[in-house]
Design a protein that fits this description.
The chain has about 170 residues and is of the alpha+beta class. The chain has 2 domains: about 80 residues, Homing Intron 3 (I-Ppo) Encoded Endonuclease, Chain A (Alpha-Beta Complex); about 60 residues, AP2/ERF domain (GCC-box Binding Domain), CATH 3.30.730. The protein contains 4 helices and 9 strands, in the order αββββαββαβββα. The radius of gyration is 20 Å and the shape is elongated. About 25% of the residues are buried.
Length: about 170
Amino acid sequence: MLSRKPITSSEVLHELFEYKDGSIYHKQTRSGIKAGQRAGNYNIKYPVVKVLGESYKVHRVIFAMHHGECPECLDHINGDTHDNRIENLRPATVNENYANKRIYKNSTSGVKGIYWHKPSAQWVGYIQANKKRIYIGAFETIELAKDCMELVREMLHGKFANHGAYA
């Protein structure tokens, strides 16, 4: 289980790990771990590493190593939870992190926040902001719906706006 405790001091982290290109490596050999070995379990959505007996997400350890502490919520700018380069991590609120979500896999329209409404024969757009679902409108064409949704998303979410895919 992941620890909810604050991550230990950056000095301790720097004694235990070396950061290089979005990964951390063990500096010390101990109980089956060799110095220089990549740290963490990468077979899960968010890679995890043990620090002094507690499990933490690797991106949180990396952020703490660089900034001395870690905020409650971090965002992967490009959406790739295995891309833990420091330049891809930024502090965020829960709402900002949610705004940077990609399109759902089961989307039938292929456009984030838009679906086909059979009774009205129109494309309908919704967006989430501040934990509320907001109706944006009904549109004759998917292109118009997409343009409108992108404009609203930019206005509401600013630099955290994600239009459905990552670069």
